[in-house]
Structures
1.
Amino acid sequence: MSNHTAAQDGTLITVAPTGAESQKSAVPALPVTLDELVTTAVECEAAGAAVIHVHIRDAQAQPTLDLARLTGTVAALRESTDLIVQLSTGGAVTDSFDRRLAVLDAAPDACSLTCGTVNFGDEVFSNPWPFVRDLYARTRELGVVPEFELFDLGHVATLHRLLAELGAPHGGHVHCDLVMGVPGGMPGNAATLVQAVSALPAGATWSATGIGRTSVPVMLAALSAGGHLRVGMEDTVSFARGRPVTGNAELVERAAALAGLAQRPPLRPGQARALLGVNGRH
Ligand code: KMH
Ligand code: ZN
């Protein structure tokens, strides 16, 4: 099977293992050290993930965008896995725009790029147009493949504006992630997912992520609508009602099992690179 055909018939699974919101003290299974992150990454690749969406923590297990740590993390993940390494440029709600832009200097394969501001529980995840435009321009300069994070339908309009004003992303392919169920963003249900997908640019591929208890319904809706999946402890720390997640791999295993049932088994990292326009390793 060629990569092109496999990419159309398979499911891209991204794992988002850590995030910036949960505290290690409250969620002991959260990977926060480099060793924990690499161990999780290896397990998740074996379970069917092809992309890892990375937030890192400092020595006190707090979110950080320290460039040396980010660069070391990219190298360690490349050393131990074949996963596409996607660094978060969203960071934590407290991170400055300058630090978020500088994430790209760690030279990841890919990065997240959120297309607008959104209420984020009691906080605001700030992404004004000038910042989004500058971040996107920098991905094109540095050859980093962006994944467009869409928390709301207005973000889809901003994605169209970005592409119209600045051109296609590095790699030439548009891939989006619908982040659903954030308190303040679009709800995590099938009707909203279908509406958002119908507004995406022609030729774009997309995955969907359901936050918290919307994780499973969004996964099922995404698979039935031909989309790809993102799962992980950044997005949900409960496997089922009253049952904490024991590790990221079990979330990837469940996503891979559902993808198999949908007759669209997980894409391997090489197939995902072909789909997303991410360069191979040198
Ligand atoms: N931690 C959130 C404020 C991203 O990684 O690009 C933002 C976020 C999105 O997680
Ligand atoms: Zn993130």
Note: The pocket of zinc ion (ligand 2) is lined by residues 16, 19, 53, 55, 88, 90, 112, 234 (CB under 6 Å).
2.
Amino acid sequence: MSDNATNASNFIKTIVIDDLKSGKHDSIVTRFPPEPNGYLHIGHAKSIVLNFGLADEFNGKTNLRFDDTNPLKEDQEYVDAIKEDVKWLGYDWDNLFFASDYFDFMYEKAILLIKKGLAYVDDLSAEEIREYRGTLTEPGKESPFRNRTVEENLELFEQMKDGKFGNGEKVLRAKIDMSSPNINLRDPVIYRIAHATHHNTGDKWCIYPMYAFAHPLEDALEGVTHSICTLEFEDQRPLYDWVIESCETEAKPHQYEFGRLNLTDTVMSKRKLKQLVDEEVVDGWDDPRMPTISGLRRRGFTPESIRNFCREIGVAKTSGIVDVQMLEHFVREDLKLKAPRTMGIVKPLKVVITNYPEGQVEMLDAEINPENEEMGMRQIPFSREIYIEQEDFMENPPKKYFRLFPGNEVRLKHAYFIKCEEVIKDENGNVVELHCTYDPKTKSGSGFNERKVKGTLHWVEATQAVPAEFRLFNPLLQEDDEESTEEKTFMDQVNPNSLEIHEGFVEANMKDVKGGDKFQFFRHGYFNVDPKLTTAEKPVFNLIVSLKSSFKI
Ligand code: ATP
Ligand code: MG
């Protein structure tokens, strides 16, 4: 799929080109390695587009590998959702792997390390291990258990595996260097005890490898050539290399780091997203306000727009923060020619056209998409009663207000000029209806040019209008959460007004819209038919993005 190639050049691509040219590799293998402890978000899309894109471009392979070495947080629901999301983004993995299928291999490698005198069983508690580790300025201290004999270590490790100890009672540590300037090399824990049922291996294991030990072995076993991860792992690269070296794996994968994606106004940590789901701040992982792939899908973002966005932001060795408006720009671009144009009234105000014959309905012609003539024409009814937007009327307008006010004339898109003659109010003084007159000579397309009006309003014919719900979204967080470390502060930042629901109307011909259909509502923006909430009686439209933005690419 050449569309999926990473078209811009970047430093990782340069490395791949060099490695192929020098003969270091005949072909490349990349992997996308999510931990199935949550749903994928837009940050993961960056990694997906990079990994799959590189393999596509250089005729290599990409594995989807579930990095499922922590039984406490992982779940089959997440495995299924991740597969669906990767496919929806337009990618097909060459192999589907589970790190948990390699537990035997990892166990053998741990034994090899023990035999080589490169790993030992430690009885220190997690707390003590932390204390002994030292700091950036002070070297660490060796554990009193560091010099156990190979035989003793082999026996204890076997007992760990056989369930003879409780959680946290013992760990297996790599024996590297307690005074290394790189703290990651101060005898990192490589195996821990966790009496927990694993989603894939059930109760077979009660010891589990740590990420830093497991990940290089997974890469090696799969023949991954370029193991691409985010910048936080840069300091772990020496440990990655140590594991590959010490475990004597056949393949010698190499780790490369790139800057992770951060977006303005957007939470991007699975832990926090999970909290929003668990505490029911949102309606599930696929809530349209969520930056998850499934949330973006339900909101109406297209795979093309996400892929194009990920390519445009590029791949660098620094983590920057990208304006969320850039993502919005790409969905607008993608939908501009694809989405039919239509009219919808979010906050309706009834208008009676008093000089229009009672009982008459005429059909007016309108382009489906003036920017894409191939989409053809649609017909929309017009009659004596219509709805307009409440915001398009003001009883006492300021200067330069060109919409409807008493005595003023405006154009109705695709129809006629109407003039506001009378304002009807309820007993509380609220405007509930307008009485207008229309001028039959002004019909759209008739070439009428005797007088001009400044405002053009959208409208929907009232008797055939389809009741519809409109959902508009504001950021989930009131301000950037990057600074907050405490759970409480994070939940405090939740925006109580992130969802606005309005009951309005759409054109008569939209009765049968289906979940996932996308439209551009004149003057409002792009909307997606919500696949979960839409019923036969009432479509629900999610605002994907408004029409205009100050964003310049
Ligand atoms: P989170 O911190 O959101 O939980 P994670 O890194 O723990 O994310 P993983 O499931 O381990 O999530 O990630 C799978 C892959 O996606 C990793 O290679 C990781 O580097 C990459 N990734 C995750 N978040 C981002 C991001 N914001 N930008 C780019 N890549 C990301
Ligand atoms: Mg992770």
Note: The radius of gyration is 31 Å.
3.
Amino acid sequence: MSLLSGKKILLGISGGIAAYKTPLLVRELVKNGAEVKVVMTPSAKDFVTPLTIATLSKNPVLSTFTATDQDNPLWNDHVELGLWADAFLVAPATSNTLSAMAQGRCNNLLLAVYLSAKCPVFIAPAMDLDMFAHPSNQKNMETLTSYGNKVLPVGEGFLASGLEGKGRMLEPETIVTHLIDFFNPNLPLKNKKILITAGPTYEAIDPVRFIGNHASGKMGFALAEVAAQLGAEVTLISGPTSEKIEYPTIKVEKVVSAKAMFEAVKNSYSQADIAIAAAAVADYKPEVEAEQKIKKKTDQVTLNLVPTQDILAYMGANKKKQYLLGFALETENELDNAKGKLERKNLDGIVLNSLQDSGAGFSVSTNKITFIHADKSIQTFPLQSKYACAQAIFDQILPHDT
Ligand code: CTP
């Protein structure tokens, strides 16, 4: 499920510091299935190179009215570009570009494309806070909105000037979410609450040491991202990981131990419509956590371990309206073990991954999954990115979701 699949997005980059984020924006559009072409103003090239953008978009970047081919000028057809696009996104839109667009000026290719485009136009302004607040910029944005363009909000925070306030270009992921919302007005998970656990847990031995595992959190974070794109309200409860969530709409709760993860899950579970346990929760923890660092001894040391709470089993036992999905990471008897967990923990589905498969497992960004439904029907998938796995998982859940 790629939410911009088959959509032709024309990106217009104007020359502001926020242009440094446009490679990520192009990547995010492509990741969601869009075909991307890019026009840049001449000054945008001071901030990001056409080579980077052309490589990521897999299309040549245009920035002048003409190109040269064997000494002869060729016309870069702005009319055709405008007609090609399903949406024209101007990001970042600088003060200068906003004012030129509002007045119908046409002194670069981006502006010519804008004036001849018949598709919806999205504008992501980016400028310093006082420039953004200036009445002339506010007026230009009102004018552009009155012409039917969709002027996106700006973000708040650190600005390149060193000042802090309103004026930042929206994060690439958020801009893409606006496009996804536009092209998919009936997102399948709109108004649904999703709870996801991710990452490892660390069980303290003493103030310095812990018992942990190799889980990276990548799978759970990819699930959170896809769920947010499908319109869900996501709570992501994550153990220690270096993964980052860029979506401002995803609520992230960081925890360390299985006990803390369990407490966080208990707070959110009753309101969830779908709960997914992707965390690699430690099954055991030290019986006692030493208050001081355990000093080295010459003889053997024994660590007494006691079980942690099985969080997924708790969710299964207390299931009401929720669709409940678990994970099973196995090294042998994979299908039987996963089916056993599905039944024992009262799940609606389980995702099996085997450490026997190369490219699947902990710290890699790919995975090979098998989805087992409660009725024991099975769907297998090839080795693919964890993001694509997350999309495949929601394709399986959606027809069964409450
Ligand atoms: N899980 C959990 N809490 C635990 C242990 C596991 O929520 N204390 C969840 C995991 O997030 C996963 C599922 O249970 O969705 C299965 O985890 P896994 O480690 O594969 O299985 P276990 O139940 O721990 O059994 P075993 O270690 O014997 O394979």
Note: Residues 193-289+302-400 form a domain with the Rossmann fold fold (CATH 3.40.50.10300).
